[in-house]
Amino acid sequence: MTQPFTDIRETGLIAALPERARPYARLMRLDRPIGTWLLLLPCWWGVALAAPLFPNLWFMLLFGLGAVVMRGAGCTINDIYDRELDARVERTRVRPLASGEVSLTQAVIFLAALLLVGFGILMLFNRATVVTGALSLLLVFTYPLMKRVTWWPQLFLGLTFNWGVLLGSTAVTGGIDPAHIVMYAAGVCWTLAYDTIYAHQDARDDAAVGIKSTALLFGEHSPRWVAIFYVLALLLLALAGWIAGLGRTYEWGLLAAGCFAAVQLTLWKPDEPEDCLKRFRANRNFGLIILAAIVLGKML
Prior knowledge:
By secondary structure, the protein is mostly helical. The protein has a single domain (about 15-300), classed as Tetracycline Repressor, domain 2 (Orthogonal Bundle), CATH 1.10.357. It contains 17 helices and no strands. Helix 3 packs antiparallel against helix 11 (about 180-200), helix 3 (about 35-50) packs parallel to helix 17 (about 285-300) and helix 15 (about 250-265) runs antiparallel to helix 17. The radius of gyration is 19 Å and the shape is globular.
């Protein structure tokens, strides 16, 4: 039997911060940047796909800052909702709200500050992007509740985390075209794949406390379903590229991404939490391969 997987605390960036700031940094998951990457990459996909040739670096930077802030806000919302459940799960019981390091009032005030900063960043874009970004708050505030009511919370996470594809489109063009809608759907399938892998870390604890997930829904059949989600994501990405008129280089990039995902899925050990986290984190590289494919597909 593997040992319980728990959060690593007060290391790296967190340890470099003043002691009073550390619980808030962990509330934002600054020590776990993979979530920021997975929120940011769809934004960059959207910007790159909408660009005439090379993506606007100013937009890429703004989305980078926005991803850090809004990922932090999303994690804070999640921890506010789950503070009692988190205290009953081995991996999450050390989170600031669950452990009592941060009070509910402090978390709410911190969340308001993050949302204010996020809105300030959003206001640097055009009106269409401001409206589209504001609409995403409906998902940001509701998706953490989905694991209580449906076996498919990963689907709602996908709808939330990939909203950036649409924001990238509006930032560059002021609207949303069919290629971006298809790419958004591809991102949702991608999230279903990687977050099912992630959810296997907590499968036993989640079952004990009544939390639902695709990991519990699929059980031993999860590898097959994850493979299906990756294939669907790649097929939809191919369709998005065809609609956008991307070059053959884009197709080779998708092939490379597919091979990378196949290797990760072959190596995945669903019953080992640390391996689940490793395969989950590998999706940053999958997303970067797709980004490179879009950029090169525009140029070659």
